[in-house]
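Course assignment 3, question 2. Fill in each field.
Student: A.L.
Task: Predict the tertiary structure for the chain below.
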Amino acid sequence: MARDPYKYFRIEARELLDQLNQAVLELEKATTPERVAQLLRLAHTLKGAARVVKRTDIGDLAHAFEDALAPLRESNEQATRPLVDTLLGYLDAINQHLASLAAPTPETAAPAEPSQGVQAPVAPALPENVVRMVRVDIGEMDTLLDGFIEVHAQLESLRENLRQIGEIRRQVDLLGGRLAAQSKAMTADASQRRDDWQTRASVEQISGLLDRLNRSLETGIEQFDRELKAVRDSAERMRLARADTLFGTLERAARDAAQVRGKQIVFEGRGGEARLDAQVLGAVQDALAHMVRNAVAHGIETPNERRAAGKRAEGSVVIEVAQSGRWIAFTCTDDGKGIDLAAVRRIAEQKALVPPEKARTLDNAAIIQLLLKGGISTSQVVTEVSGRGVGLDVVRDAAERLGGKIDMQTEIGKGTSVTLTVPLLIASLDGLLVEASDVAAMIPIEFVRRTLRLAPAEIARTAQGDTIIYDGHSIPFLPLDYVLANRLSSARLNKVWSAVVVETHSGIAAFGVDRLLGVANVIVRPLPAAALAQSIVSGVSLDLEGNPQLILDPRQLVIEAQNIDGLQNEPEAPEHTILVVDDSLTTRMLERSILESAGYKVDVAVSGEEALEKAFHTRYALFLVDVEMPGMDGFTFIERIQSNPDLRDIPAILVTSRATPEDLQRGRDVGARGYIIKGEFDQGALLTRISELVR
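Answer field:
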């Protein structure tokens, strides 16, 4: 492969350009000596790096940038708009030159000489602090994170081995004690006593070796566990990016659009501290840039128009990022002239997008939905309505591609907001960790209004459901174990509860829990596509052993509390042990959580082969088996169980995403007593069927 003389320079220059662009935009808002000094340092660093690799074109532009900025160093004047335009122009030119420095491929010859026939040398080794930005493949990162979880699962096996070593040591100590007692009781010759002494010495030596091995392994495992946790946390956060990494690009897009049209704007980004999946941010970046340009081009008025309308000359464009459950919303709001929905109705009628008789009866919400669908001529709508016809196509396409949606609100003379909502892939979340019926769950902290201690007398019980008085109002109260497992402890009537008050747009409710475990920041992972989970579960985080902590959707929780009828105590489920067989770690643990919260003991196996081995040594009440697994699949596992006289009476339920008639028939043929389709999962139906089979 041809040498790449710019391998490290491209990385460093790109990072410097990002910092320079952001700093210039900040300079326009407030010119300070510190900001000027920062820009000069960044430009000087870029110029020096360019000269090292003989890119005099980029170096000269960086030098010109310094010259243009230098007068501000000696004065306390505010940077003018023309100066900022000049500085941004230099950065755009540098970016164009940088874009031409493509990495060589095996088919590409050595790069052309950059200037005056001088051969560009290979870049020297750079200090470690120079190369700070890397790009990683998302799929490879996910594989790495899954690997960490599996390694932690293997650590549990090592800990079990450690316990066995401890047991061996105790047995050796017991043997040594018995030998010592026998030696005292026996009257043997000198040779026999010498043999006894040597035997006891060997036993003591073995005991000492086992003791040192036990301590060494215990220390090593715990240290490895801590270090692996730290590496896993770092790797998970590498998968994320702060939302405000988009703000610099969006602010630049807004400013450029305003300059072209002779407008003045103030850009603001909110919610930038949220850490989101980099893949989501990359996918929505173009759509957000289009939303910002539309807001400036077709929403914000000219300074004279704004003054005439009693507004300040500068228009406001705000990008806000907000997370709600399993969704992330990007909202672009302007304080411009809004959309003339009556004009949209006329255009739609003229273009026969809707029948005339229907067009006249459309309300504002229907007109907005019509506008969001596209098909309205930009030239006519821009003239009469001030934009957002075809302009929203890019946003709509992004929403459809990511499985999201777009919404719009507008008011004449007040402005417009467009919201792009897409599902989260992975995100960082601050939440309140609680425990109910031994199930750990997290509620996003932004929806938690208060935590309470409730005595039985403070809960009013009616046929319509339980309520409490909060802030002077009656609100629903619901034990969280009922939401998670559709069951209640018989002791609930006399129980003192810890309660969490949750408020969302859909209302407010309180939920009783066994314990409040504290506030934590966790990495939220999406549920597997075919996971068995209720609608109240929006995602999952994993502890060191890969056990799930359910992330609850606050809106669905409140809806559940509002729709519940009076609660009846249900008898505790008898204690039975169920074997869950599934090759997906997350699915195994989710199923375990569901079953344990319903009162069952649960054992797990990652394959049909491991499940068979466990079934031969432990008596289970039921098998819950995935169909599609490497090696022995679920059908074959049940066939093997049915062929064994000691196991054939144990019922088995198949769990799968395969729902063809042939698959269903094969499940019946092999002897399955239930067939759960993951896409049609009903937790209550599953638990009911299990209770019928294990009586």
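Instructor remarks: The chain has five domains: 1-134, 140-238, 242-339+386-423, 427-563, 577-693. Residues 140-238 form one domain.
Grade: pending
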